[in-house]
Amino acid sequence: MKKIKFNWLVFLSFLIVFSSICVPVSNAATYDYVNVTRSVNPTSITVNDEAEVVLDIIGTPPVNVIKPNDVILVIDKSGSMSTENKMASAKDAAKGFIDLMDLNVHRVGVVDYSSQNNIGLFPLGTDVDAAKNYISGINANGGTGTGAAIDKAMTELVNVREDAQPVIVLLTDGDATEPQGNAYAYALQKANEAKEKGIVFYTIALLNTNDNPDTSGPNILLKDMATTSNHHHFVLGSKGLAEIYAAIVKEIGVASAYDLRVVDIVAPEFEVVPGSYDNNIPKPVVNGNTLTWSFNELKDKNLKFTYKVRPVDKSKNGKFNVSTINSVISYKDFAGASRSKSIPNSLLQVMLPAPIITAIDPNVGSPTGGEIIKIQGENFVNGAKVLFGSTSVNVSFIDANNLEVIVPSGKQGPVIVTVTNPDKQSATGIYTYQADPIVSSISPNIGPFVGGNTVTIQGNYFMKGIQVIFGDKPSQVTMNTSETYLKVIAPPADNSGPVDVKFVNPDGTQLTIPSGYTYEDEIVPKLEITAISPNKGLLTGGEGVYISGKLISPEVNVFFGEQEASVVTYYNDTQIKVIAPPTSNPGVVDIKIVNPDGQSAVLTQGYTYEEPPRLSPPTITSITPSEGLLTGGNNVYINGANFATGSKVFFGAKEATVTLNTSGKTLKVTVPEGDDNGVVDVKVVLPDGQETISPSAYTYFTPLPEPITFTSISPNTGSILGGNVVYIQGSNFKSGMTIDFNGVRGKVNSITSSTNASVTVPASTVVGVVDVVLTNRDGGTITLPQGYTYQPVQPKINNLTPNKVINNKGGTVYVSGEYFERTMTLTVGGVNVPISSFTNDKSFSFFAPVLAIVGEAPVVLNFTNGQTASATLIYEAPALAPAPVITSLTSSSGNAGGGETVYIYAKNLTKGMTVYFGNAQANITGTYTGSLKVTVPPGISGETVQVQLINNEGTGSNTVGYTYK
Questions:
Q1: Residues 664, 641 contacting (CB under 8 angstroms)
Q2: Which CATH class is domain 69-253?
Q3: Fold for domain 796-876?
Q4: How far is CA 599 from CA 84, 556, 574, 576, in A?
Q5: How many Å apart are CA 862 and CA 868, to the nearest integer?
């Protein structure tokens, strides 16, 4: 190819004049159009593992700079192109490519090929119609001589303009078949020759509809032939072919950098894993720890190079740089100036393998310790530490699989043995301290037949959960806090005499003390009286007496001397209550109890009958007042002496009610109703029968009623529940006056004057107006017709708890208020709702229904009498779930054909999640706490799409990039 020094100033002037493209005039770019980053995954490995290194090279083309390109479209016209309409699609797409090209800047030519001897050429030029007419005349027939076609294109590109970039865009649908035997290698050789001559090489694999791009021979070949992975494309059954050509047109003349060379030198702590870089396009040249990629052009896409490294020294751990400081990327910018930049480094944590304990030999020993044992396993390191529980021991390092230690003293039972390498990684195993129990004393070593007594045992090696067995019966262990001390409750015996005492630890260790405990002879209980209270009373009997004892039957018979007592209360077999029977003779008697089975018990001289003391005779000195109404009911004070407690008072033959006895000197009584007007005797009778009479001491009389008036009630209305205070007016109101509302007695609170009184209204069973009647004690009465109106109670709702619910969930609401009824009905937002639980007339609950509203909903109670009560319940929309947040993907790249499994780790996951890779929805195959398992949908090779989660409320997450290879 002819090389002529290129004058950028002339070229830029040409562009400004003829293409209206503004390009700054300079000898070299001042802006860095290439960005390179490095990542390593995982960031921490063991010395036996591998890590993947990823170099992301992203170009940013300069604005308004278009470099002229001379482009050869190489179009396969082999016989296979006649299937699935491939030839027609290829021709249409190629003509569309030419229509989109700016031929004021670029030139285009066509090489159409089948067999090696059937290759056509339309030379480079700018005649759109001529080029399209040529393409229209291409017909499918023959084999596939891809290498010869590339050679033809290179020959034409010898005529490339001095200022232009040579480009080949190769489209083929099948395997290279000519020359026979090495068609693939020949095609790849010619592609490499073209790239070495500075030609940018695009490839398009036109696959069959059902081909697998990952295994397709043509697709794999064309990927290797392309300048970079971003310069390769494929379509299935021609679908999308025109779009690929259009995308390539947009890239023609636009590049971030040219003649790129990436040299990545792996640090000496690592080595490159052979073959781990084979999927790169282009593949690197690998020399020891140096990987070199060379390619003609970098577009504005992310070019990803990957390879794997592994540690060299399997005994060295630490955090190391993956590459050296000499790793560099060099290139030429659009002005032709040479530039270079260092490739950023990444740290990789290298750890030794974690230790593994496979055996502890022996793994059982005495709590006293001192035994040498061997810890067997893997990955032990000199300097490893060993703990028995929290106790550190000296360690003898034998090799990576064996350690020796001296067991420290410990507590009976298992202990965790921990081996920790110097890098803090550790492994655990179990060692068991084991010893049979030792008993030094059992106190007491003798006890009752029924057991139940506490026995203290001292010794050693008593484990938590130890069993102590007396004979064949387990005891209750009440204290087991020490290896040397136990307390147990002795179980009952089957037979008296000595029994073995056996101690069994949870680990199976045990000890038997022959005849270690002795049971005393059995004590047989019998009927018994232990106490009498009180133990004395009057000859008249009637005293309540409590008898305590043992084995008392509910059908027991009780005798005071020869007199049988009545049993009034049976508490249990140790206590009863009886009524002492009367007797005629004072003195002491035996108390005897007899069970139905004939058993009896006697408490000799258990009860004493005493003569009552003689009361002093009563006297009456005065009666005040000495007269009263024939109806009785008034209070009278009787003054005198020796009025004993329990004294009775008679007015004539009728007994009065004694309401007060003051020091035996004054009796306050309520006078009984008399039989006739006139005088009667007043008599006081003591409990012992002594009495005194005041002859003709009280006079009954019947007065004529005085007129009474009743003019008003204020207020004159109230609830049927009553209880409210009203004020009445009239005349001749007297003490003792009564008031009735429709026959129901109210309460006269006070009579402030003969014309005013306050009254508490009684409750009513009727609603409406009623008559009110006043009556004086002298019989005077007056009625106020329809004087008072009873009103029905007004039910009301005081509170709703809660007063807010979520509209799509509803929920239980508790209602408090007044005068609720079981027969009432309920609506919420106009919807009939059953009452869930009716507690009382002040409280009930219901379940708020699901309503499609946000805001206030009326809660209305309807009563059978037509009354209503209402409140407001707030319906709120459910709070939106927090947006999902993607934290990481297990893989950030995969094959363009999709189908790979990727785990997405994220926060705020909900049911009904959807996952998108770009615009394609992925299939979720597993849902876990904090992660989703998805199958990646197909994509376009070289394209980076954004992965996003959408929850069931339509809220989207952040996005994470995923690149199709």
A1: yes
A2: alpha beta
A3: Immunoglobulin-like (2.60.40)
A4: 115, 10, 15, 17
A5: 5
3-state secondary structure of 17: helix
Beta-carbon contacts of 737 under 8 Å, excluding residues fewer than 6 positions away, are 748, 751, 757, 774, 775, 776, 777
Residue for token digits 């009479």? 693
Separation between Cα atoms, residue 259 and residue 512, nearest integer Å: 92
Q: How is residue 766 written in tokens? A: 């009727």
Question: Which phi and psi angles does 140 have, rounded to 5°?
Answer: -85, 130
Which residues have a Cβ under 8 Å from the Cβ of 262 and sit 6 or more positions away? Answer: 36, 55, 57, 284, 291, 292, 293, 294, 305, 329, 343
Name residue 281's amino acid.
I
Sheet holding 835-840, edge to edge: 796-801, 811-818, 843-848, 835-840
Give the fold, CATH level 3, of 528-610. Answer: Immunoglobulin-like (2.60.40)
Q: How far apart are CA 77 and CA 188, in angstroms?
A: 19
- CATH fold of 619-701 reads Immunoglobulin-like (2.60.40)
| Straight-line distance from the first to the last Cα atom of the chain, in angstroms, rounded to the nearest whole number | 34
Let me know if the fold of 69-253 is the same as that of 528-610: no
Question: What's CA 342's distance to the chain center, in Å?
Answer: 50
Angle at 123 between CA 114 and CA 190, to 5 degrees: 50
Check residue 80 and report its DSSP letter: G
CATH of domain 885-964: 2.60.40.10
- Is residue 884 reached through a cis peptide bond, with omega within 30 degrees of 0 on the bond before it? no
| pTM of the complete model | 0.46
- Beta partners for residue 456, in sequence order: 443, 487
- Identify the burial level of 145 via C-beta atoms within 10 angstroms of its C-beta, where 0-12 means exposed, 13-18 middle and 19 or more buried: buried
Answer for the pair 413, 430: CB distance below 8 angstroms, yes or no. no
- The domain 356-433: what is its CATH number? 2.60.40.10
Nearest to 696 by CA among 652, 646, 752, 641: 652
Sheet strands side by side (includes 372-378): 356-361, 372-378, 402-406, 395-399
Burial class (CB in 10 A: 0-12, 13-18, 19+), 449: middle
The angle subtended at Cα 876 by Cα 872 and Cα 882, nearest 5°, is 160
Please give the Cα distance from 757 to 905 (Å, whole number): 85
pLDDT, averaged per 10 consecutive residues of the chain (965 residues), comes to 34 34 38 89 93 93 85 93 89 90 93 94 94 94 92 93 92 86 90 92 91 88 90 87 86 85 96 93 93 89 92 90 95 87 94 92 93 94 93 94 95 93 91 93 95 95 94 94 93 94 94 95 89 91 93 94 93 94 92 94 93 86 91 92 92 94 93 93 90 94 84 93 94 92 94 94 92 88 94 92 92 94 94 94 94 93 91 91 92 93 92 93 90 93 94 91 94
C-beta separation of 367 from 412 below 8 A: yes
Q: Strands 510-519 and 446-447, how do they pair?
A: parallel
Q: Which two tokens stand for residue 41?
A: 């995954």
585-601 b/e (C-beta count within 10 Å ≥ 16 → b): eeeebebbbbbeeeeeb
Sheet with 831-832, strands from edge to edge, namely: 804-806, 868-876, 855-862, 825-828, 831-832
Domain boundaries, the chain: 27-61+267-349, 69-253, 356-433, 438-519, 528-610, 619-701, 709-791, 796-876, 885-964
**Positive or negative, the Cα torsion across 726, 727, 730, 732?**
positive
Q: Supply the CATH classification number for the domain 709-791.
A: 2.60.40.10
* CATH architecture of structural domain 438-519: Sandwich (2.60)
The candidate with the shortest Cα–Cα distance to 408, out of 377, 382, 436, 386, is 386
Say if residue 830 is exposed, middle or buried (CB neighbours under 10 Å; 0-12, 13-18, 19+). exposed
- In the chain, count H helices and then E strands: 7, 79
